[in-house]
Amino acid sequence: MKRTAQGIACTALFATSLASGLMAEGVGGLSQAIDTPKAADGIADDLTILFDYREDYRALSFGLQPSDRVEIGLSFPTYDDNDGSSSGNELSFGLRFLNESTYFPALTVGVVGIGSDDRGSGEYILASKSFGAVQVSAGLGWGRYAQEVAVDRGQDDDVFQTDHLFEGDTEPFANITWDTGIDGLTVAAEYSGIAGAQEDDTFAASLSYTLVEGFAVTGLVNNQGDAGLRLEFSANPAQPFVQTDIGRGPHPYAENSPALAGQPQPNEAQVFAVLQERLEDENIQIRRFSMRGDTIDVTAASNTDPVFARIVGRVARVLSAIAPANITTFRVTQNTGAFDSNVVVLDRAGLDDAVGKPNAAALAWDATSFEPSPLNRPAALGESEFEPRFTYGLEPTFKADFITSDTLELTGTLNANARYTFSRQTFVSGTLGYRFLNQWDQEDPPDEPGVRSDSTSYEPDIVFLKSLSLRHRFPIAPALYGRVSAGLFERAYGGVSGEVIWRDPEQNFALGLEATYVQKRAYEGWFGFEDADATTVIASLYANVGQNGNFVIVDAGQHLAEDFAVGLTVGRNYRNGWRLAASTGWSEERDSALKFGAELSIPLSWTSPDGGTGTTNLSVGGQSGDFGSRVSGTGGLYSELRASDKRRIEDGFGEFWN
């Protein structure tokens, strides 16, 4: 195991679900020295999460470099003024269109708060040059980079505003950063032409110290009387934080030979026993096994390995050595826990041809096909009757609150979860919650219940019933799945919900339809309801786009406010279990700028040498207004099915022989 202390620190950090930030990342989630931009100097897939705290300003920011030249940022700032508090929501982009060379600087253009002209928006053009451990940047800024409080610079009142871009007053800026090489110590200084409360120009300095790899603290100060603190978490989802303790290597692959046909062949029970024994050492479980004709059919799963392509490869390795010579096809079924989701079909001769070749993974993929799981299968070895079980646990969660507070407060909630599982497809679950850190001030309920805007009308400082519902998932036909749910789905709504998803494993898209009828839950008490109901009917398209796990989800239909709305989510599923996504939505009733949300899922296998398929999840922003909002907690099926996507498995096929 490598970097034990860092792994522990990282795990502890994410256990709180509170992310932190970076000295090199900040405004809008883009690279900066202190408050002025600098050139991005990371690599593809670098991720940073920053928390910026000052007396009159707080922000939680996410930054991602999908490539060496491009940065994408998402920031949630709040401002404290004499007139009270306000909050923002900023989607930002940075593009380095000219790389640095021996004699010429890199040139970068950036837009913070794209689609909005509020006080946090701004644009810049900068040139940067590195001299060893020192980077120098200078440029010209608009909006927030030219004014202490940027005012509206455009006349466009649409939900996506563009006429303010690179318009209005400009001011120069310059900065320098120096990696001292002393125990993770970095120093930065900057100049900006922005006039402040005390001086006509602004000078600032900062000192950053890396506590452990991936986590740093920065202190900053300027000549306008401001001081602040930044916390940073940085990672690269494509690179493991710790070296997984894989123990022994995988079993060798044995090519089939016609000469073996004349030798005694093992029967079904013998093959199953050896397969089960050898794969147990690799934490792979065989839940079903059959050998009929020229085909072996197994259902395989692992509690430690999130890469199903690697699981399939290790099953194939063992079968190659023990399967009778007449077996030509290996079928490996993937199961979500509720039902079989697809069948990966391997041609044994094709795998034989791939062994030892430089492009062995590509050749193995060519020998692979996909089929929908059949509804019914004959009895097989390894199957066992499901035994009902009761599970429970306590889960503290911490998050940055944008809903019940305008000041980005850290809130803490203790959740007591319980679940009784009747069968693989049916369970009832409930959650009790208590917010023990930073309660909200209860407001009088509105005359007519709102959709989301009345969240502070719910009774604070009590143990509340967060959810209590029954859920049943089932296959309807090959490639067609259904779900029904009933109960209290979330703090605000309870009712009934049904969903159908069509998903052919040979395709790179799926279609879904969810219909829900809910009643508004009472502002006080556990089981009461307000005199308000709603029906939602939402169709969804789930599409895998290109390579590297990129995906797009489009939702459209009638939402809780009886408005027609469209939701858009874009993101990336990494083959090791990481998931990053950003979302926004448009409603026919909303006339304000688009709001954005972010989701981050980190697999246990990334921070633990023992591996694991569990994840730590962080979400921020998203639905908070009355329009474009849907019910949560109904139990969407795609979250269970997405790990079985053909493209998701293909992206991990480089691990097939590992």
Automatic annotation (TrEMBL):
Keywords: Signal
Signal peptide residue numbers: 1-24
Protein origin, superkingdom: Bacteria
Database matches in Pfam families: YjbH (PF06082)
The protein's name: Exopolysaccharide biosynthesis protein YbjH
